[in-house]
Design a protein that fits this description.
Low-confidence stretches: 4-12
Strand content: 5-15%
Distance between the termini: 56 Å
Shape: elongated
Pathway: tRNA modification; tRNA-queuosine biosynthesis
Number of domains: 2
Mean pLDDT: 92
Number of strands: 11
Order of helices and strands: EHEHHHEHEHEHEEEHEEHHEHHHHHH
Subcellular location: Cytoplasm
Family: Belongs to the QueG family.
Number of helices: 16
Binding site for cob(II)alamin: 76, 152, 176, 187, 234, 259-260
Largest sheet: 5 strands, antiparallel
Structural class: alpha+beta
Catalytic activity: epoxyqueuosine(34) in tRNA + AH2 = queuosine(34) in tRNA + A + H2O
Strand order of the largest sheet: 1-5-8-3-2
Length: 368
């Protein structure tokens, strides 16, 4: 855990009265707003009742090739095992819906590339982690504490904590939902040994709605609150390192990095807030570029144009793999065929295989 220099143990504040703690949490919320967070919630660390569901999900194999999910086991639900001394989790929300990104128009045009809205700008890991660190340091300057910050960077049940910390409820697509903000936001946490007063858990408001389940292109939401990652387009285009299963390729459409369909279908996202964060604004025309344009990127182009982006993590090979599938789903045009033929003899066996599949989709056009 990190701490302020010369910090006194959190036990020094364990005698706070209710009003003292509530006032300090209000102050934390104010500091959070100053650092760009849209909401802050505080909760305890007991996720015992979430453990059976987590283990059942892993045992069903729904985590696919994400071996770390099984490897970490129940540590994901036990904050004090991950960071000894933790007694509270401070959850923070930062909205990312970009004003310039028309998701519907991008999905409707099969010649354009669709990139999940969260990945159009700077890597949220970098943005949130830096802001959370500053917030934790501001807290420590006022009341010394031991802490660690996380943003999708460790075995943490982020949505579970956030839903218990008053930031929303878990939707049937498993994402967090808020009545005034929908689901277009990132989450981050501060694990702390400060015995802060906790926020009340919110009641769910999905009712009988199944819009997210019905909208999933690959049927990955196999039941309410249960996603089979092996069928999820986000998993297939980001986490999966090998070949994308042929049976699922047509359902990817023009989605080359992630998928937002379940969120786009959710009625609560009518209330989503536009992000004012410049770091999340689209870069390199990723919200409007064509598949042919992006398929022409060299490895050097990819490295340069995705530097500081979450997309960088998948590497050039998977980038080309994904776009080859999307080109296979695109209308047959001279430009599409030329782009595919230009990479028919690519150095990567993975890319060659997906290009061959795509060309077969276009009637077995001559390859290079």
């Amino acid at each position: 855990m990190s701490s302020a220099a010369g910090a006194q143990p959190a036990a020094a504040v364990s005698g706070w009265g209710p009003s003292d703690g509530l006032e300090f949490v209000a102050q934390i919320r104010q500091w959070g707003r100053e650092f760009g967070f849209n909401a802050i919630g505080v909760g305890g660390i007991d996720l015992t009742d979430a453990e059976p569901g987590l283990m059942a999900w892993v045992e069903a194999g729904f985590h696919g090739d994400m071996d770390y999910m099984a490897r970490h086991g129940l540590k994901r639900a036990r904050a004090a095992e991950l960071v000894p001394g933790t007694v509270r989790v401070i959850s923070a929300r930062m909205d990312y819906w970009p004003a310039a990104a028309d998701a519907g128009a991008a999905l409707a045009d099969p010649q354009r590339a669709y990139v999940s809205r969260y990945a159009l700008g700077r890597d949220y890991h970098k943005v949130l982690r830096a802001r959370l660190q500053k917030l934790a340091e501001r807290i420590a300057a006022a009341v010394p504490h031991q802490y660690r910050v996380f943003t999708d960077s460790a075995p943490v049940l982020e949505v579970e904590h956030a839903s218990r910390n008053g930031l929303g409820w878990r939707g049937k697509h498993t994402l967090l939902l808020d009545r005034s903000a929908g689901s277009w936001f990132f989450l981050g946490e501060i694990f702390t040994d400060l015995p802060l007063p906790v926020d009340e858990r919110l009641e769910p408001h999905c009712g009988r709605c199944t819009a997210c389940i019905d909208a999933c292109p690959t049927g990955a939401i196999v039941a309410p609150y249960r996603v089979d990652a092996r069928r999820c387009i986000s998993y297939l285009t980001i986490e999966l390192q090998g070949a994308i299963p042929e049976a699922l390729r047509p359902q990817l459409g023009n989605r080359i990095y992630g998928c937002d369909d379940c969120q786009l279908a959710c009625p609560w996202n009518r209330f989503a807030q536009l992000s004012c964060e410049p770091d999340f604004a689209p870069r390199h025309r990723l919200d409007s570029a064509t598949l042919v344009e992006l398929f022409a990127w060299s490895a050097a182009d990819f490295a340069e144009r995705t530097a500081g982006s979450p997309i960088y993590r998948i590497g050039h090979e998977r980038w080309l793999r994904n776009i080859a599938v999307a080109l296979g789903n695109a209308p047959t045009t001279a430009a599409v065929l030329a782009a595919l033929q230009a990479r028919a003899q690519d150095d990567s066996a993975i890319v060659r295989e997906h290009v061959a599949w795509a060309l077969d989709r276009h009637g077995g056009a001559a390859r290079g």
